[in-house]
Amino acid sequence: MTAIGLAFRGFGNVLRSPGLVLWLWIVNVAVALPAAAVLTESIRDSVGTSLVHQNLRDGFDMGWYGEYSAEAKGIESTFTPTVTGAGAFFNNIEAWFNGDIFETYRGLLGLGILYAVLWSFFVGGILQRYGEGAGLFRLNEFIAEGASYFFRFLRLALISGAFYYLVYCFAAWLFERMETSMRDVTSEESVFAYVLAGSLFVVFLLTFVNMAFDYAKIATHRENRRSMVLATLRGFGFVLSNLGRTTTLYYGLGLAGVLMLLVYNVIAPGVGQSSASGVAMAFVIGQAYLIAKLVLRLTFYAGEIALFDRASVKISW
Description:
Elements: H1 3-15, H2 18-47, H3 51-58, H4 62-71, H5 87-98, H6 106-132, H7 139-181, H8 188-222, H9 228-241, H10 243-267, H11 276-311
Helix pairs in contact: 1-10, 1-11, 2-6, 2-11, 6-7, 6-8, 6-11, 7-8, 7-9, 8-9, 8-11, 10-11
C-alpha cells in the first residue's frame, strides 16, 4: 500500500472513532480553562466600566492594550492580539522552531508540560485503538491501556527531550557560524538562501526526531518492549530502513496540516469581534480547527501503525 493509501486508511480509522476525538477535545479544553479563567478575570478588572469597555465593543483598542501589556505580569504577559485566529498557531510554530517555547511564562509552560504528560498517558490507548481495530470506544478500556504503558512512554518522552535539546544546540551553533561567515557578504539573496537552507535543515532534524519517536512508541506497544533505549533505536532504525514510505507519509500529512492552517488563517475571525454572535462564531471556528488538528494528529498515529505493521521486520536488538 502506498503512503497516500496508508494516510487515507489512517484517516478512515480516526473517523470511525469519534468518541476518542471527543474525549481528547474535552481534555484540551479542560487543560486550557484555568489559564483562560485567570486571563479573563484580569482583562475584566482592567476594563471595568471605563470608556475602554465601549471602545472594545467597537473594535480592538490598541491604546488600552498598550497600557495593559505594560503592567501585565504572569500569564497576562502572554496575551497579545495574535491569540485569536491563526496567529497563535504561527507563534507556537515559531517558538517550537527556535526553542523559545521553553522560555515562556512558567505557569503556561507548566500547563504545557501537564498536557504532554497527559498525552503520554493517552498514547497507549490511542495505539491500541488504531492497532487492534477496536469497535465501540470505551473510556475505561482506553484509560486502562494508557496506564499500562504510561511510565514507558514517559521515559521515552524524556529521551526524546534530550534529542530535541541536541538539535537546538546544533541549531544555535549552526546559525552562529553562518552569521560569522556571512558578515562580509553583500548580496541579500545569498544571505537569504543560506538562512533558508539552514532553517529547513533544522526543521528537518526536528521533524525527523519527532517521526522516529512516533515509531519508537509504536514499537514499544506493538512489540511490548520494556527498554526505552532499545525502543528508541528501533524507531530510528525503522525510519531509516523504510525511509521513502515513512517520510512520504509523515511529510504528506504535515503538508495537509499546513494547508489546513492556511485555510483557517483565511476564514478565522480576528480580534475585532464586537457582537455576541461574532464572538460565538470565532469560538466555534477556533474549536472546529482544534478538533481538525486532533484528527490530523491521530491520523499520523493511525497511518504510522498501518505502515509499521506492513513493513516491520522482526529485529532482535
